[in-house]
Amino acid sequence: MMKTLFLAFLLSGYALCSEEQETSEPEPVWKKTKYSDMQNISRLILMPDMGTRHYVYEGNSDSDYMLNTTYPFHCGAMLWQGIENDTRNAQRESKNITGQTFIENYGRWVNLKPMKDTSANVSTWMEVRDYAERNYKCEVWRYANPDTQNKTTVCELLHEYVCPNNITIYSKPGCYKKQK
């Protein structure tokens, strides 16, 4: 009896952090469950301050129309430069990763009309971390829960270097840990 109650308790805690069940009706690609704990860049950054920098951690880079697809995007930053004719002018900076080494740094200017741009078949879903220099608070959004050994990725190490004082790592909605 006690074993059954203990097992039920463990499973109820797991359910709080697990993904939602898929419905039987087909969903648009960008509404799939696997994107549910990601941030949509176009929704997240509609009216940023000039020069706001957002660090991006992973995402559906294969479908990312904001990048030259010959450069796989793993970890980088987006720096907003201004708004003209309802278009957000941004520069995407990125570093390619081979194994554990950053091998290239490049930038690309992009012009976006958030939530209006029809040039993509898939909304640009990526995990985003806001870097607020004045209060030294950062966020890292992860696609999946940490593994049992909680190994740190190269991209997380970069974020830790940029913002060492206070970093919050989010996994699934409602499940997060703070590091100081």
From TrEMBL:
Superkingdom of the organism of origin: Eukaryota
Keyword hit for Signal: yes
Signal peptide: 1-17
Keywords noted in UniProt: Signal
Record-given protein name: Putative salivary lipocalin
Organism of provenance: Ixodes ricinus (Common tick)
